[in-house]
Write a structure and sequence with these properties.
Elements (H helix, E strand, L loop, with lengths): L9 E6 L2 H12 L7 E5 L6 H12 L13 E4 L8 E6 L6 H6 L2 H4 L3 E6 L11 E9 L6 E9 L1
Parallel strand pairs: 2-5, 2-6, 4-5
Antiparallel strand pairs: 1-7, 3-4, 6-7
Helix pairs in contact: 1-2
């Protein structure tokens, strides 16, 4: 992907279709490497899992991406040697930092990108810098929007 088609390290975009959400995820994946954390924030139906599908496609991982709501975390191995895998986490039902710690996500950071849905306020402490993607859905519409930025802490 050329520099001109990569999304900026921070930005906003309107996402009229689910395909647009997945396309942005593929573009954001170009910025990611093993050890990166992506936190997806947004209400139910805002496109968090669609964004993760796009990131997974951009990383080229193995397996169908679906919401890990009931299993909390799902691992997708890299399809090619030297590429990162993906750990997809749904933090909605986690009771806080202790339950997040029990997942041992920090050990997965060496080989994978970790995407955490509903992770804001919970997962940031895993790394010194993360990509925060805020997804919104227009009331009574299928149109969504995304704003993203790298956050240092």
């Amino acid at each position: 992907m050329s520099e001109s088609t990569r999304p900026a390290t921070a930005g906003e975009r309107t996402l009229p279709e689910v395909d647009d959400t997945e396309a942005l995820g593929r573009e954001l994946a170009a910025q990611l490497q093993a050890g990166d954390l992506v936190i997806l924030d947004g209400p139910l139906g805002a496109g968090k899992t669609a964004m993760t599908r796009g990131i997974a496609a951009g990383l080229g991982v193995i397996g169908r991406v679906s919401s890990p709501t009931f299993i909390i975390a799902r691992e997708h191995r890299a399809a090619l040697p030297g590429r990162p895998g993906l750990i997809h986490v749904d933090a909605y039902r986690l009771g806080g930092l202790d339950e997040l710690d029990a997942l041992d996500l920090d050990t997965d950071l060496a080989d994978s990108v970790i995407v955490v849905e509903w992770g804001e306020g919970v997962a940031e402490r895993l790394v010194e810098r993360h990509l925060l993607v805020r997804l919104r859905r227009e009331p009574e519409s299928e149109v969504r929007s995304a704003a993203w930025e790298w956050v240092e802490h």
